[in-house]
């Protein structure tokens, strides 16, 4: 429960860092909501509530994660992640250059 809540907080912080109204922001928001639901499910399970209710909440969380994944793919394909990809390529090139020098 604590881990899911902590992950939700991390995703919520990423929502604030992402560009407003971007697919990345929506993806991080959906992920944060999913992990809030997972934490809620774990908390409610301690009270021995109806398993069907817990299953429904978990299924909604899984659906939100699927939506989040699709939004991240959309952000990648629309070029929203261009800065991140460029920096990753530069870091890989630097590492290759260092490795060749050895």
UniProtKB/TrEMBL annotation:
Keywords: Membrane, Transmembrane, Transmembrane helix. The chain crosses the membrane at residues 28-49, 56-76. This is Uncharacterized protein. It comes from Oscillochloris trichoides DG-6.
């Amino acid at each position: 429960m604590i881990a899911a809540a902590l992950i939700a907080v991390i995703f919520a912080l990423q929502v604030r860092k992402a560009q407003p109204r971007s697919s990345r922001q929506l993806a991080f928001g959906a992920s944060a909501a999913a992990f809030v639901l997972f934490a809620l499910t774990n908390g409610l399970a301690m009270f021995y509530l109806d398993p069907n209710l817990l299953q429904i909440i978990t299924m909604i969380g899984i659906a939100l994660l699927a939506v989040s994944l699709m939004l991240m793919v959309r952000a990648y394909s629309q070029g929203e992640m261009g800065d991140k990809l460029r920096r990753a390529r530069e870091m890989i090139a630097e590492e290759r250059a260092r490795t060749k020098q050895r």
